[in-house]
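Hello Y.,

Per our agreement to keep a running log of every chain we model this quarter, I'm adding this entry. I've kept the format consistent with earlier entries: sequence first, then predicted structure.
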Amino acid sequence: MTDPIETPRRYTWPWLVLAAFVLFVALAVAWMSAAVHREKQERNFNAPLPSHPAH
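Predicted structure for the entry above:
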């Protein structure tokens, strides 16, 4: 018979899947942040100039 005090098997793949998902989310947030920043810069650059100077 087998040993009665057998430790349960620890799988590695769920941790790899979790790490891949966390990396995906972090990269998606960084990419969207950069895209939003670039879009805001383009909108500010193309904004019409004021007709009178600010005081």
